[in-house]
Amino acid sequence: MKLRCERDVLAEALATAGRAVANRGALPVLSGVRLELAGDRLTITGSDLELTITVERTVAGLADGVAVVPSRLVNEIVKALEPGAVELETGDDEARIASGRSEFTLKTLPADEFPRVAGVEGDEVRFEADALVGALRQVLPAASGDDNRPILTGVLLAAEDRGLRLVATDSYRLAVRDLPGVSVLSSGKQVLVPSRALAELSRSLGEGGELTLRLGERDASFSSRSADGGESGGIVLTTRLIEGDYPNYQGLIPQNQPNRLTVAREPLMEALRRVKLLARDATPVRLLMSSDGLELKAVTQDVGEGSESLDATYEGEELTVAFNPDYLLAGIEAAVGEEITLSTMDSLKPAVVRTPASDDYLYLLMPVRVQ
User: What is this structure's pTM?
Assistant: First the structure.
């Protein structure tokens, strides 16, 4: 195999596919990325058997072939080269990478040992990539990172009357985002997709373009092309689905919350970032809500305290509620619009963050009990 390609194009493709590479595992070959050149089409694949990312790029192909190269090392070498054309050539058990006056050789891995990922069998559904990417950015922060609770590490995709619903929770918070008019699942169907796969999908997709989803019994694939329809931006992400029953999240959402705070979103985020500097050692930030407005306060024993007042509209009984500041900030950052509303029942029951401009997004957060 022999090809020539611009450094930045090759480095970006190697990095994208490399994010699916296994850091450790039973198959040493999975520490590498598989390169396949056919004409001017270079296909780079990384996989850990649970997640597979395949990137296609147009290059100057000089000789077709297949090779597996160490992912981390080849990526570091290509990124370190001077800007310009890079020549990559493989043969026998070596790969040569050259650019300008720099030249490197690497030992390759056995290409015949790299597992072939079967295509997902299922009907294709196509929709605008921007819609899904925006929704993922709102729900992914609420997914759990605890592998001991695999169900909660996924994002639920569920067919609703209005369209597609995305749900994520780590049992301390819950994010729900509706995509009206997006029909990617048959009525009443739902699937649980690993949040890691969706995070990589969100990271890999550019602005615009069309996304194709194919759902199988145990796996799913997402493929995209660039917004201009060109062949230079092809990415296919394949992931195994999580099996199991998702918690009844709808039963967690309060139906009646008499207390309602409305506050400007940007000033609230800025104030929260400042006050939480004094929220050390798992100290929560308290929200003191009254007809006079909102006061944020954090007190850490033997360290100090911080507070800040904000103009806000409040309807309800005077109330103080404490939250994990990072969790609260994540929900407010994910909201879209100039204002957010925080609805509460009391200081111990779940609070709900929404945006007055739209009812497509909901973020539920459990308060922290304080003295």
Answer: 0.88
